[in-house]
Amino acid sequence: ATWLGVMGGGQLGRMFVHAAQMMGFKVAVLEPARDCPAGHAADHLICAKYDDEAALAELALKCAAVTTEFENVPAQSLAFLAERTFVAPGAACVSVAQDRLEEKRFFTGCAPTSGVLPAPYKAILGNDDIDAIPDALFPGILKTVRMGYDGKGQVRVKSKDDVRNAFAGMGGVACVLEKMLPLAYEVSVLTARGADGESVVYPIAENVHRDGILFTTTVPGPNVCAETAAKAQAAALSIIAQLGYVGVLCIEFFVLQDGSLVVNEMAPRPHNSGHYTIDACVTSQFAQQARAMARLPLGDVRQHSPAVMLNILGDVWFEGDSDTPREPAWDKILALPGANLHLYGKDDPRRGRKMGHITFVDPTLELAQQNLRAACGILGIPF
Ligand code: ATP
Ligand code: MG
Ligand code: MG
């Protein structure tokens, strides 16, 4: 059998393992934690740090291609792997996506052809930068340049004093101050590009966040007009072409109250907002990643049913203020028409931790939304 490798053992790696195995591949996972969602599903787990050269060499030797499910994998590790096997996405692409400043500079450079700009921003690397912040950037959000996800490493700021406090609070690490924009709604565009430059773009997804974490994804998005969808999809295709990207990549956009489109960030991997593709599209984002890695033709991105995805956080294991987890009523969830329950095999639920998701695939979007509201009721999630 042909082996594919993945750096990272989280739920994205697990769903990749499942998709690749369905296509007949064997999958090796490299991850420091032995007990991890992808490790339990993989054909082989290499338990080592992401920069362990002996482990990387073993992965490269075993696998016809290696990918990453974790955007903060050291870019040098991907470069090391690339000297020994086919790696997609490449180190250079991942390193742009790991650094919010580089990412914004890259998006800005793409703007003449992509037609979209990032939010107005300023790099905050030291106190001199804080003194020089233009008033027009307030109110704003201070974000760490590296490592942030699910809204972690972000502070809302109204003044230079707020920025000084927040910057010190984050230990003085490199940050970027972004102007807070008046959002009408948020969308993401999932794409894939093959080594031969062939590209595909999935239907645009509308996303709702709660406390900085993705709450629901709805496709087709109830707010999205055809013009905005076409503009965001064209921008995403232009960006991946300019990046010379290979593999699955997702770009998040803001749609402002005046209808204009702003590019937020990109994830060099399958994305939480693309989970709906597992149940609602001909080719899931994970099967697509396997195709791109194995340099096979990319798959059909057609969506066959309206879909809504609800993230399941550890919170639903806890009733009220209780500290004792109890299993949610999955039987009631599974009785809802069109329900597809995905749990990631994590044994220790914690509040705020992504434990799984449910995608409702129904004949109409209204039915899917109705079933999602019913699921929220069953799980005790305020809607
Ligand atoms: P992810 O888990 O998607 O990687 P993240 O921690 O990298 O999240 P962002 O995507 O930058 O964070 O921001 C999280 C959310 O905060 C956005 O989806 C949006 O709802 C809100 N947000 C971020 N930046 C802005 C902005 N400039 N103006 C308005 N809202 C914003
Ligand atoms: Mg992010
Ligand atoms: Mg984001």
From TrEMBL:
A GO molecular-function descriptor: phosphoribosylaminoimidazole carboxylase activity
EC class name: ligase
Catalytic reaction list: 5-amino-1-(5-phospho-beta-D-ribosyl)imidazole + hydrogencarbonate + ATP = 5-carboxyamino-1-(5-phospho-D-ribosyl)imidazole + ADP + phosphate + 2 H(+)
UniProt keyword terms in alphabetical order: ATP-binding, Ligase, Nucleotide-binding, Purine biosynthesis
GO CC term, one of those recorded: cytosol
Protein residues bound to ATP: 100, 143, 148-154, 178-181, 186, 209, 264-265
The ATP-grasp domain, residue ranges: 108-294
GO-annotated biological processes: 'de novo' IMP biosynthetic process
A Pfam family hit: ATP-grasp
The organism's place on the tree of life at top rank: Bacteria
Annotated NCBIfam families: PRK06019.1-1, PRK06019.1-2, PRK06019.1-3, PRK06019.1-5, purK
PANTHER family reported in the protein's UniProt record: PHOSPHORIBOSYLAMINOIMIDAZOLE CARBOXYLASE, PURINE BIOSYNTHESIS PROTEIN 6/7, PUR6/7
Family named by the database record: Belongs to the PurK/PurT family.
Subunit structure: Homodimer.
Job description of the protein: Catalyzes the ATP-dependent conversion of 5-aminoimidazole ribonucleotide (AIR) and HCO(3)- to N5-carboxyaminoimidazole ribonucleotide (N5-CAIR). Catalyzes the ATP-dependent conversion of 5-aminoimidazole ribonucleotide (AIR) and HCO(3)(-) to N5-carboxyaminoimidazole ribonucleotide (N5-CAIR).
Protein name: N5-carboxyaminoimidazole ribonucleotide synthase
Organism of derivation: Noviherbaspirillum denitrificans
